[in-house]
Design brief:
heterodimer; A: 422 residues; Spore Coat Polysaccharide Biosynthesis Protein SpsA, Chain A; 2 domains; 19 helices; 13% strand; globular; B: 238 residues; mainly alpha; 3 domains; elongated
Amino acid sequence: MAEETLLSDDFLRQLMGVGEVDLMVGIPTHNNAQTIGATVAVVEESFRQNFTRDRVVIVNVDGGSRDGTPDEVLKSITETHPSLRGLTSLRTIHRITTRYTGGPSPGGALRSILAAADLVRAKACAVISPQSPGLDTNVVKNLLQPAYRENFDFVAPLYSRHKFEGLLARLVLYPMTRALFGRGIRELHSTDFGFSGKLATQCLGEDVWGEDPVRKSPEIWMVISAIASGLNCGQTFLGPKVQPATTSGTDIVTAIRETVGALFWCLESHQDFWTRVANPEPVPTFGPDHELTTDTVRINRKRIYELFQKGVTDLSPILKTILTDQTRTEVERIAALDERNCRIENQLWVTVVLEFATAYHHNVMNRDHLLQSFVPLYRGRMYSFLAEHHSSTPDEIEKDTEKLCLEFERQKPYLLETWKAK
Amino acid sequence: MKDLIIQGLQQAYQNLVHMISVFLPRLVAMLLIMLAGLFVALLMKYLLRLILRFTQLNRLSEESGASQVLRNAALPTISELLTRSLFWVTWLAFTLVGLSVLGIPELHEQISRLFQLLPEVFVAILILFVGVLAANFLSRAALLAAVNAGFRSPRLWSGSTRFVILILAISMALEQIGLANQTVTSAFSIVFGACMFALAIAFGLGGRDLARQTLERYLGDNRKRDKEKEKEEEPSPL
């Protein structure tokens, strides 16, 4: 029923022409004409190398590109490898492209990919971003194989990163998910991931696609849904995450809106599950569990400290409605300290995050405003982390992350108490 | 003489009896109308409360920040406020209709005027209420945006936003009830124009260098360098 409204007649015709497949790779695009050709070529090459006997299809779902991205998808089939098509592989590698409705959004794109996967009865699927700079044939293989051959339902990526990259994941998303949902997925937010046809069908049937957090970060909802349904989740190492080492302040606000907002929303939508989960269990991992690099990067710590300090002062009336008096007083005391002594320790940080989650649940204010109010506090914790681990080794950082996870677990009863309080 | 006095007293007594015989049914009618009004008002209050509970208005009010404003002003929840307002407006309307039954021409005239003004006052209050909500919501949005972007005076941005919206709401409300139409409009135009003029002069004279830098940043060659500088500030969150 969902497919009838989701998929256009032309797309349906193309999918029916393909028939049933074993593997499907979905590539969501929006104005990616420059990179889509190379991405499709890598995926095809991976199919040729690793899945020679399997029925495969590449599905491009486009959000309304104006630079001819869909044309590039189809064009590269003949222009880049005119002689290779279907020759080294025992089966034809199909490429199809469609445009989804409702404007470009990760949620809209994923929904179309899931609908296509459901229709062609794919056993395993992967979503690959055309903007992944480190994409190679192994990435595609590593995302598909656990779902195809090892019966995993969701395959999250793992990357080798700089020790100061991905701090939102390290300080909030990973430890909170591990403590509350009982499964520690390190890269909760990712543009590349794998999943089974079973999970695709299950997620497609959920009535959540109009929700803002799902539209913006569908993969977070998808992995939490998989965990909550008792499905098999795993992680696979994909190599170094190639991305700019640093980014601007605006990106932090967007990142928090999309990821922390989605996680808080999932706490609400899956509260029946996480309130019952007792002890976290390890997530099966293919390859190393973590890998950190320690190259020198330029980070303006002083500015982060100033933004934290000023943010806490200016947002004091707003924080008053979100945090308890005790927590807010402690945050304000730390913000008043000088650069050397300003540290938000694990215990206070976890309390702050959990009180924000509770405030989100109780609708104490507009949810977008609440998430924006979280930014200065995240900067404070980020500053503490940067100052504390300026010269730490990867192992020391990993030990600290473990302590943070345990602190989240220790304070879970506090969240349960405040969650049900109102 | 004596007869005349007795006759006068009889006449006065008859008039009084006549007046009471005319007035008493009207008074009873008025009381009945008021009583009926009380029942209707209570019924409407109950129905509205049910409808508002169904539409989850309180939750929307919490999300938009309206509840916070009401709490700050020591007012009840928005559903309670609306149901109480409906009750009083309905009962007041019935009371005024009842009073008009008494047939006192002066009172009738005043009631007519009050009836004419009542919707205007109600709309003016509504405008003010929406204005306060909008001022609260947008000033908070401005504060958060300014804080997270690292602006120097976030509270100034927030306060200015609140001030402009409140002034606009007050002037619209006053215009609605027809109070000093031209004065209010002129005053608003003058105050708003003066603020903008002052800002323009302050930015043009006091912040010449800042203006040049800002223009260069967005239009000139510094754009690339500025982006590079921005990149050195914070590590990637994801």
